[in-house]
Write a structure and sequence with these properties.
- The protein is an alpha/beta fold.
- The protein has two domains: 111 residues, Rossmann fold (3-Layer(aba) Sandwich), CATH 3.40.50; 174 residues, 2-Layer Sandwich (Dihydrodipicolinate Reductase, domain 2), CATH 3.30.360.10.
- The chain has eleven helices and 14 strands.
- The protein has an eight-stranded mixed sheet. The chain has a six-stranded parallel sheet with strand order 3-2-1-4-5-6, sandwiched between helices.
- The structure holds nicotinamide-adenine-dinucleotide.
- Nicotinamide-adenine-dinucleotide binds next to loops.
Length: 323
């Protein structure tokens, strides 16, 4: 049984606590949050100082569910103590932080919560790519159009700021989609974007909208991400292959071939928490502990995120000054 600690007991932590309680080889032993009422919310040993928790509890692993900018320092300190790390996305908001996360991974297994990689439809699509089921990939397009209001930003002071969130619609909401695109494309040769703040200008520092162009060889990927829409619409990703178009909208995957549409059904885990968090957390976390038990590298290790992180950091390097 792995004794697991959790740092940051806000919104997403509930999903981690739930999964850690469900898995047979994990137990949530201790929690840390600067707010005592949150640190105590899961009924285990509670700390308001995460370093004290790391020093006192003999943890096998720690989950990082804190604001973005804290992930690298927390990963490094855990690794220094031999504690394995499972961090929420994004693992870092700048190149220095990303290097720190990779240094931590030289000491202990580090897992990154890109849970949508475990979505059966995504796995099916990656199989189509690998096995050339529908011929070569020609292009990808994706839309992440959600709603994040001034109230959403006011509720968590770290959001909407370069220093603590590191960006907006792209790094927080559309990062999963960017990751899935880069996983299909490989490291892009051309990386270009424009970023805007349309509806919360003057209220938040970061972008509410990003338009992204990625190209590798002859394959271009287009991503439009915005939190200025009226609702959280299902994410749409479309892969254009030589012989078919595969469209994934929310949980509905459709193959469009020779003018005919056919839905592909896949079993998914039940969603825990908000619908837009998807159903992948359990599979993603379970596989982290399975890989540790098996002594195998974890699928979502930092190496597997290198192209996504390099792409993300370059996009912000290009666009941040203009916002
Ligand atoms: N994988 C996903 O789909 C998904 C979904 C939602 C959030 N997330 C990620 O989870 C992380 C947390 O997001 P959230 O929405 O739960 O945020 P949140 O603001 O609701 O929670 C963050 C918690 O961290 C605590 N905290 C802040 N500084 C701390 C410190 N120094 N020590 C201990 N605790 C501290 C805060 O008090 C708060 O309770 C972010 O990185 C976010 O991107 C991922």
């Amino acid at each position: 049984m792995y004794r697991v600690g959790l740092i940051g007991c806000g919104g997403i932590s509930a999903v981690h606590a739930h999964v850690l309680g469900e898995l047979e080889n994990t137990e949530l032993a201790a929690c840390a949050d600067i707010l005592p009422e949150r640190a105590g919310r899961y009924g285990c040993r509670a700390y308001t100082d995460w370093l004290t928790m790391l020093d006192r509890e003999k943890l096998d692993a720690v989950h990082l569910c804190t604001p973005h900018h804290l992930h690298p320092i927390m990963a490094e300190e855990a690794a220094r103590r031999g504690v394995r790390v499972f961090t929420e996305k994004p693992p870092a908001i700048d190149a220095e932080g990303w290097e720190a996360v990779k240094r931590a991974a030289e000491r202990v297994p580090v897992g990154i919560c890109f849970q949508n990689r475990y979505h059966p439809h995504i796995q099916a699509c990656r199989r189509f790519l690998r096995e050339n089921t529908y011929g070569a990939l020609l292009g990808i397009r994706a839309f992440v159009t959600w709603n994040r209001t001034a109230e959403y930003y006011a509720a968590a002071s770290w959001k909407g700021k370069w220093a603590t969130e590191g960006g907006g619609a792209l790094i927080n909401q559309a990062i999963h989609t960017l990751d899935l695109i880069v996983a299909c494309l490989g490291m892009p040769e051309q990386i270009e974007a424009t970023m805007m703040n349309h509806h919360l200008r003057g209220r938040i520092e970061v972008e509410d909208t990003a338009e992204i162009y990625l190209r590798k060889g002859n394959v271009a990927a287009l991503l439009y991400a915005s939190t200025a829409y009226s609702q959280d619409a299902p994410v749409l990703i479309e892969w254009h292959f030589e012989q078919a178009v595969i469209r994934l909208e929310g949980d509905v995957m459709t193959v469009i071939r020779d003018g005919k549409k056919q839905d592909i059904a896949c079993e998914t885990d039940p969603v825990i928490g908000r619908s837009y968090w998807g159903a992948g957390h359990k599979a993603c976390i379970a596989d982290f502990y399975r890989s540790i038990e098996a002594g195998e590298p974890y699928a979502n290790d930092p190496a597997s995120c290198e192209a996504t992180m390099q792409t993300l950091l370059r996009l912000y390097a290009q666009c941040r000054a203009a916002l």
